[in-house]
Records
---
Amino acid sequence: MAKKVVGLIVGLVLFIGLPLFIKGLTNNKLSIGYNKGYMPDQPIPFSHQLHAGENKIACQYCHVGTEEVRHAGVPSVNICMNCHLVVKAGSPHIQKLTEYYTSGKSVPWKKVHLLPDHVKFNHQAHVLAGKQCQECHGPVENMETVYQHSDLSMGWCVNCHRQPENNASVNCGVCHY
Ligand code: HEC
Ligand code: HEC
Ligand code: HEC
Ligand code: HEC
Ligand code: HEC
């Protein structure tokens, strides 16, 4: 009898718990792009505060061509090695970085921002219109670890497009495929 009860309880826990657990996993994946504050752990603890803040390295020194391409992109290891062949070469983090470099691999940085596929966005139009990185990404130069500052919702995009001085379209077809 007691065994049956235990069996029933274990069964119930699995029956209710397992779907919830799976939902939790998929929710985590789906929430990228909508998750204001999202701050994944990175394979190497890269600090924007140290590089863009204290050392005043320009955003576009690393995020090359933001004004020309759709994706700003994250820098290749080559750019890091312009300095780190020498700077702090003895640090364990820089040694890890150097291993990626010498083996010709890229660092598997985790994406922080990601819009759904049905949305068109390009940096070029925004940067050419004079928008600063910080208007959308927040004070990155103060961030030890980069996180998603804006919610990237449709309302967020449309609100800014509606400002008369921006002279930007709110037609569905401008932002959607
Ligand atoms: C008008 C708002 C806006 C401005 C201005 C802006 N960004 Fe972005 N940025 C975004 C959005 C939205 C995404 C997500 C794009 C996607 O998932 O397709 C993004 C993504 C990125 C990414 C991730 C790689 C990618 O392209 O998906 C980097 C890096 C980045 N931005 C850097 C910058 C830098 C550097 C500047 C300034 C030169 C800048 N951004 C200006 C809104 C902006
Ligand atoms: C223009 C030069 C320059 C470039 C390019 C550069 N860094 Fe740095 N980095 C520095 C300086 C300066 C420090 C601080 C060194 C110190 O604390 O004495 C630093 C520190 C670091 C540290 C901390 C090391 C430690 O253990 O204290 C890491 C990690 C790091 N950089 C990673 C990177 C990565 C990854 C890239 C490429 C995306 C990169 N850096 C590109 C100049 C640079
Ligand atoms: C020394 C190189 C370097 C400089 C300078 C730099 N970044 Fe980055 N940036 C990186 C690297 C490497 C990553 C990927 C790792 C991470 O997310 O921390 C990144 C990631 C980002 C992301 C998140 C991309 C994503 O995955 O969605 C944004 C946004 C961004 N940077 C904006 C900026 C802005 C704005 C500036 C200037 C204030 C700047 N960066 C300066 C190297 C740099
Ligand atoms: C901070 C204000 C601001 C935000 C936030 C913003 N935009 Fe824009 N957007 C602009 C401006 C300004 C223009 C340029 C208008 C012009 O000069 O043509 C523009 C233009 C565009 C264009 C037209 C591009 C082209 O090639 O002509 C698209 C598409 C676009 N934005 C999509 C988006 C999407 C999607 C988002 C949200 C993820 C977004 N924007 C968020 C200000 C903004
Ligand atoms: C300035 C850019 C922009 C414009 C203009 C725009 N959208 Fe969107 N839309 C987005 C972004 C970004 C998302 C994804 C984020 C979200 O779901 O809020 C989105 C999401 C959506 C979704 C999916 C919502 C969901 O829950 O998955 C629908 C449907 C949609 N838009 C319809 C429209 C229609 C209809 C129009 C015209 C009246 C329009 N959009 C105009 C940027 C835009």
---
Amino acid sequence: MRTAAIALFGLLAIAGTASASIYAEVPDAGELPGTAQSVTGAGALTGITGSVTAGDADMFRIRISNPAAFSAAATGIQGDTTLYLFNLDGTGIAKNDDISGSNFESLLPVGAAQYAGLPAGDYLLAIGGFAYQPFSVAVPSLLSEAVFDANVFTGVQSPQNAGPVLSWFQLVTGPSSGNYEITLTGAEFIPAPSSAALLGLGGLLAARRRR
Ligand SMILES: [Ca+2]
Ligand SMILES: [Ca+2]
Ligand SMILES: [Ca+2]
């Protein structure tokens, strides 16, 4: 019995270690600050996996514990991803669409001026497929309303509009649905409310009920 318990504990420990560093989207992350999925857990966050459909992007609230070491690299969505980093209020920080003229996957590299000197804390990381872009107006009608210039494809871009993202728009149809994987450095899970705090609350409720 004791041996079984130890073996079970060992299995749980292994499972916890294996799954702790990669966050899997469940079920679909929204694409605006109010509907972004919080990546809660504990410890270093080394990746996020998920999927988008056409006319869809995913936004995650992550903790950048070391901005000087932060990086995000995306693969998937039929070989053409775009990565965006926003402040919690939805204002843009940085975007990369294509790694190069022949590699359409995305990289926000370590040390970019847009984020390497930011304070550690929580930020919004978004991913979309081909030509699905964030806009700083609720109903886009002009390319100049995009948070980031949609006609710049390589390099780490700064925003062209200071306003927060209020909508997304598919500019051109193309391969824009599929699975993706984002590899991260300098990031951590956002701590969930501690179980001790929840137990404390449960104890308080139980105590009140007994009276
Ligand atoms: Ca999704
Ligand atoms: Ca989504
Ligand atoms: Ca791309």
